[in-house]
Amino acid sequence: MRSNQSQLRLTATLSIVVMALIAAATPAVGQQETVLYNFTTAGPQAGVVFDALGNLYGTDASQGVYELTPQTGGIWTESTVYNNFGSNVDTEGDLIFDSAGNLYGVTISGGGSNLGFVFELKPSSGGSWTEETLYAFPPTGVHGNSPYPGVIFDKSGNLYGTTFYGGAHGGSTYGPGGTVFELIPQPGGGWTEKLLHSFGNGTDGYFPYGGLILDSAGNLYGTATQGGMFSKGAIFELIRQSNGQWKEKILYNFGSHPDDGQSPYTRLVFDSVGNLYGTTTAGGLDANGTVFELFPKAGGRWTETVLLNFVGSNGSSPESALVFDSAGNLYGTTFSGGLYGGGFLYELIPGGNGNWLQNAVHNFGNGSDGSGVEGNLRFDASGNLFGTTLGGGTLGEGTVWEIKF
Predict the structure, then answer these.
(1) CB neighbourhood size of 267 (10 A)
(2) Could you give the angle at the alpha carbon of 332 between the alpha carbons of 331 and 336, nearest 5°?
């Protein structure tokens, strides 16, 4: 899916705070990276998720769904959870658990029409897992195809997700479009799909690659990698209406000035007061991407502020979502750049007057270390950080890694 990236744009009141304070390109004392697993084929594009016992789960394109189990002495063992989705099925999205310990995810291909499907994996006695296809995208394309990067639950147990292609305005099967969909569990079993929005109409964004988040009122937020008023991408909100329909509102259009970020590629994140944070893979002062914040204003407007411009030495092309630690600091990674060119793990610490200090945590790509960080990050209960790389490692096929704080 990396080949689908491109340049983007957007509109709104823009205020830029360019941050030039970059810490030394070595990890701080006490922050040590450990490679937990080296993939043998087709490294992961998605991150990992914990179960209730502290085991890690993730997907990769060739092995399906895998599990990493911690052992004494800091060793982790890998096992295949499920790899019987069928031939030519691409599993490279995020996984989530429900409260009963079942796993949910998506495939960007496969299913009856080979346009992708949403699945559930249920654990069985003896350690095996049973797969159920909840919804396979039909050949008409109106409901979208190639779901990515995954699904999320609301408080009522409904699932929400995006497709990268298709929809009412997508034109051809793989034309500029995409959709937002909902899956509703039925009392007698099974799930019903509801199309909430089709992208690509007029100055709407398209290719919603980053996935969705929910606010406390049940409204959906996400990014469109391309399109928008300036053809550089957009941030959207889908607002639930009283009649059960959903109305899209564009919160920001990227590309309103030459140094704005372009191509928002990742999931957004809220802070405790309702501001939105995210990244762009391109644009900015050095065309290597940005970290941005969106502030809600009176009257429903949002104002964008650039918190960080990537210049190569401090990373380039951020492709994993930001995550907050318990102290309110932001962590993120870049796919490339840094000291060895294999990507960069950074921390953003809020300072005075709206400035943020960037602290170097780890440079990827040194020796047999992983490189190309694309999957989302995850903290464990002890505050240690886990993630994946698409390449590098002892076999060059990617890794799962941990940073201890």
Answers:
(1) 24
(2) 150
Instruction: Name the nearest CA neighbour of 94 among 114, 76, 108.
Output: 108
Per-residue pLDDT reduced to its tens digit, 170-198: 777 777 899 999 999 999 889 999 999 99
In whole angstroms, give the CA distance from residue 97 to residue 7.
34
The b-or-e profile of 350-388 (16+ CB within 10 A means b, else e) is eeeeeebebbbbbbbbbeebbbbbbbbbbbeeeeebbbb
Tokens of 313: 């030495």
Give the model's pLDDT for residue 1: 54
What is the domain partition of the chain in residue ranges? 17-404
Kindly give, in sequence order, each residue whose CB lies less than 8 Å from that of residue 117, ignoring residues fewer than 6 positions away. 106, 107, 110, 111, 133, 134, 135, 136, 137, 147
Place of tokens 């399906």: 64
**pLDDT one-digit tens code per residue, 13-57:** 333 333 333 333 334 434 789 999 999 887 899 999 999 999 999
DSSP 337: B
**The tokens 């087709």 sit on which residue?**
42
Predicted TM-score of the model (pTM): 0.90
- Tokens representing 150 are 């995954």
User: Quick check: 225 and 235 in contact, CB under 8 A?
Assistant: no
Q: Are 402 and 47 in contact (CB under 8 A)?
A: no
Q: Report whether the peptide linkage leading into residue 176 is cis, meaning its omega lies within 30 degrees of zero.
A: no
Q: Which of 284, 293, 292, 331 is nearest to 312 (CA)?
A: 284
Give CATH superfamily name and number for 17-404.
YVTN repeat-like/Quinoprotein amine dehydrogenase (2.130.10.10)
How is residue 247 written in tokens? 């109305």
